[in-house]
Design a protein that fits this description.
Elements: E1 8-9, E2 14-18, E3 24-28, H1 30-36, E4 39-43, E5 50-51, E6 56-62, E7 66-70, E8 75-80, H2 83-86, H3 90-93, E9 102-106, H4 118-125
Antiparallel strand pairs: 1-2, 2-3, 3-9, 4-6, 5-8, 6-7, 8-9
Length: 126
């Protein structure tokens, strides 16, 4: 299982990367994609909206289940990874790079401090 040390994580299995321009990129973890199985659809209709931490920003559909995607921090959803519309399986094959979900403009960067480190997340998923 791949858990990059430079990222932050949530108990809901999202990863967060703070970018140099102050935005945040969000996706689901390698553990989450493995648990979901073959991903067939990613739906995010919240682009341009401002949402609070832990609000649902979209859903991810696998062969056997549909799961909500939760905001790791409060902010405005700037963009959605449009590549996932035609190739949702990218989340399975490359969850930390090409399989990212959304980019967020944080409204409260201090919330980043409350997220899990790679070690903390590893302890949760075992």
């Amino acid at each position: 299982m791949n858990i990059p040390a430079e990222l932050k994580y949530t108990k809901d299995h999202e990863w967060i990367r703070l970018e140099s321009d102050g935005t945040v990129t969000v996706g689901i973890t390698d553990f989450a994609q493995g648990e979901l199985g073959d991903i067939v659809y990613v739906e995010i209709e919240t682009e341009g909206e401002s949402l609070d931490q832990e609000e649902v920003f979209g859903t991810i559909e696998a062969v056997k289940t549909v799961s909500d995607l939760f905001m790791p921090i409060s902010g405005e959803i700037l963009s959605f990874n449009g590549e996932l519309e035609g190739s949702p399986e990218t989340v399975n094959s490359n969850p930390y790079d090409d399989g990212w979900m959304v980019k967020i403009k944080p409204s409260d960067e201090s919330q980043l401090e409350g997220l899990l480190s790679a070690d903390d997340y590893t302890n949760i998923v075992g």
